[in-house]
Design goal:
DNA binding; 5 helices; Lambda_DNA-bd_dom_sf; Cro/C1-type_HTH; Transcriptional regulator; single chain
Length: 80
């Protein structure tokens, strides 16, 4: 799994755990819903650390908490 897939999957898991949809995540984070939906689509994933930070702020977690999940411990090497 690559980092952009892991980020999207982790946000999806956090939304499911908290019972919120992507639109609500966008609203509580001050991010346009289209940005969140684009980030979640595999064919259009664009990641920007400032957006990830805002989404974490909306979920009231730190970047360190977000990236400390086990999903990030098993990432594939992206440099080939």
């Amino acid at each position: 799994m690559y980092v952009k897939d892991a980020v999207a999957k982790h946000f999806d898991e956090l939304c499911r755990e908290r019972g919120i949809c992507y639109n609500e995540l966008a609203n509580i984070s001050g991010v346009p819903p289209t940005t969140v939906y684009c980030m979640m689509k595999p064919e259009r994933r664009k990641l920007h650390i400032d957006v990830i930070k805002k989404l974490c702020d909306g979920l009231e977690i730190s970047l360190a908490e977000f990236f400390s999940g086990p999903i990030f411990d098993e990432l594939e090497q992206e440099i080939r």
